[in-house]
Amino acid sequence: MRELPLLEGTVRQLDYWWTLYLRTWRGGVVSSFLTPLFYVVAIGVLLGGFIEGDPAQLNGASSYLLFVVPGLVASQTMNTAIGEVTYPVMGLIKWHRGYYAMLATPLAPIHLVAGTLMFTLFRVASTTAVFLLVLAPFGLFATWWGAVLTFLVQLLLGMAFATVIFAFSARVRTDEAYGVLFRLVVFPLFLFSGAFFPIDNLGPVLSWAARLTPLWHGVDLSRMLMVNVIDWRLALVHVAVLTVLMAAGWFLSVRALTERLAQ
Amino acid sequence: MVNEASGESVELMISARGLTKTFGEVEAVRGIDVDVRRAEAFGFLGPNGAGKSSTMRMIAAVSPPTGGTLEIFGLDPTAHGAGIRARLGVCPQQDSLDTELNVFDNLYIYGRYFGIPRADVKARAHELLEFVQLTDKADSRIDSLSGGMKRRLTIARSLINSPDLLLLDEPTTGLDPQARHVVWDRLFRLKQQGVTLVLTTHYMDEAEQLCDRLVVMDKGRIVAEGSPLALIAEHSTREVAELRFGVGEHEGTAARVSDLGERVEVLPDRLLVYAEDGEEVVTKVHERGLSPVATLVRRSTLEDVFLRLTGRTLVD
Questions:
Q1: CB-CB: which of B101, B114, B118 is closest to A106?
Q2: Interface predicted TM-score (ipTM)
Q3: How far does A12 lie from chain B, in Å, by closest CA?
Q4: In total, how many domains does chain B have?
């Protein structure tokens, strides 16, 4: 039985995360806003100008810019979410030991996981909102509700990554593990999950491997919604996969942090 | 609980029976019995690795006991952790201040974790900054504070919820002598206000300054319990004569002075002769034709108690 309700314990951390955000948001502006914009301009507009693809080959997108932008949106979601649950979480556990200070209050590990994820959700929501607003003048949204659903999909995708990687952060002992994570997991996902080219180009075996990655589900779902060529059955599969991942990640995160902080 | 001698009811803040804590193969705490009463200043004295911090983490309701029983405010910490922690103040050994936040926000944010309303916690934070003499540092960054200031801020933070019981793990370790005295002064004031203090320390002077009662821990067990004065009276003599001879001469010289006191301890750099009158020991040593390089007569301390009980010094 939990004495302090999950919501109450999470709400008590709002002041902390908000104060932290006010003190640190400037540093994140470049990476969360300008970087994706640079990608859109460089790869979508300038490089994409050389690419003439049949919409049938581009998952229904009528130009390479339209094809690549949903991939960039989803990739930014992944990067933002992972960014919030790697080094900051290791800091809270190991460097400045903020979680230990919080644990000396009525808060329990489950509240700490929820608070960190709540902030991650806020970061994903705010960076995605800004990104989508910046994209609006490019005329990239087929429908307004497609844009809204794309936004909601980013929240789900962000949480799927955040919960799983939080569990990883609560288990690893040194930040060297993140070097491996970024080089061997995040960067390959970014390049090969269908953001820049249709995964069918990878050949039959590798394209199936790509279908197993969480980012592909996010990219494909975002693209369907943005270009308004929607396979609803497949969309449902995407949502289901990401939801299961998020639920499993939450369970693993709470368990991992509880065990870690009890040591 | 009723005190049988006086018939008065005594409120127990902490009560432990046969308390153990095991980490894998390592037995950090091996069955200890402890009672701490309201408004008492209670100490766990012992060297590093004695099991003090593990005991404190169990009392802080963050680390579940492996065996035995433990009650804080009469409640079981495994079942009522949040309720217990709401009434505790914890000052950890390692500073866990948030370096991203300024001094005031460290207090404010912490108070919010307890669910204290915003206006109340702000007022309380200002009061506490005043109490630990950091009011003019309210807007400073944590990195700009000295070690002593950080410790005082951590103490202020642990008081944000006006706790019934304050736990301090090695409150002055790593501080310079002047900073230690400032911290002691603040803790002494809290004690006078009636706050129950429980602290761990491996400094005997700290234990003597602050504790009404203490237990000496060694290798996960309690080896002695009582007030500092009672422990000294029970386990040591009134005075100690410290005799320093040339390198390597201590072992051989010990036999020649052993009859001058109740007992003699041989340390690598000196001999300790325990006696009621230390000056008399020194005089007799010289009469026997021995010429120590240096001598010192002092009163017995808890360090001597510890040496007597464990055969080891506290700080090694």
A1: B114
A2: 0.90
A3: 5
A4: 2
